[in-house]
């Protein structure tokens, strides 16, 4: 891992449909001195932005070219079909790909789903963008199958959507250039993975050491220092009975040995 102390800010790219608000808020709380700059990119240009150094990391849609980009899969989206509110499909909770067989299904050029063959009947031509396809759905030209986040992003009052089974699903991931895994990238990875600020993988400072207790004055389990029990002498090495304490003045204490004869 290489350091990046000179980086004035952290640049985070994100593709349409991804809402990075939660992670940006946590970043601002933990690293208030390092501004985070959001970079909105299309799905097609996201990897070029990362490789070109125009963003430090980004929320992208899988698959990712693993040769030079690292990625952490985050979640899988529900696939939905966008329809006019008066369409017959609105009468059910969900549909299958086979249910769309007789419908015209729009397939925009920026489609994010990895189809072997899109469902339904193809339109006369492909719309340039998902936003254009949504306009065509509103005009009654056809239907559109997209990840749920894109259906929400392009929400219109005259349109709604239903989940579709038997179709590809879009997976969102955090990606960054492997050779530029900086300290700031590691910090953001920790946030996305839900690590706390004191996590072992974080860069929190080591807590200050507490002052050592003086010998002979160790606290008990409650934290309080022990006091001598009532009625017992506190002096150290004190003898019981009539003998004097060890180390008394010369001649002041009785000598040990046999008693003298009288």
TrEMBL record:
Q: Which CDD domains does this one have?
A: PBP2_LTTR_aromatics_like
> Is Ion transport tagged as a keyword?
no
- Here the segments flagged for biased composition (Basic residues) are 253-262
* Keyword Transcription regulation set for record: yes
Pfam families (alphabetical): LysR_substrate
The source's domain of life comes to Bacteria
**Region Disordered: which residues?**
196-262
Q: Where is the LysR substrate-binding domain?
A: 22-194
Basic and acidic residues bias: where?
210-220
The protein's UniProt keywords, in alphabetical order, are: DNA-binding, Transcription, Transcription regulation
Family named by the database record: Belongs to the LysR transcriptional regulatory family.
Spell out the PANTHER family in the cross-references: HCA OPERON TRANSCRIPTIONAL ACTIVATOR HCAR (PTHR30346:SF0), TRANSCRIPTIONAL DUAL REGULATOR HCAR-RELATED (PTHR30346)
Protein name as it appears in the record: LysR family substrate-binding domain-containing protein
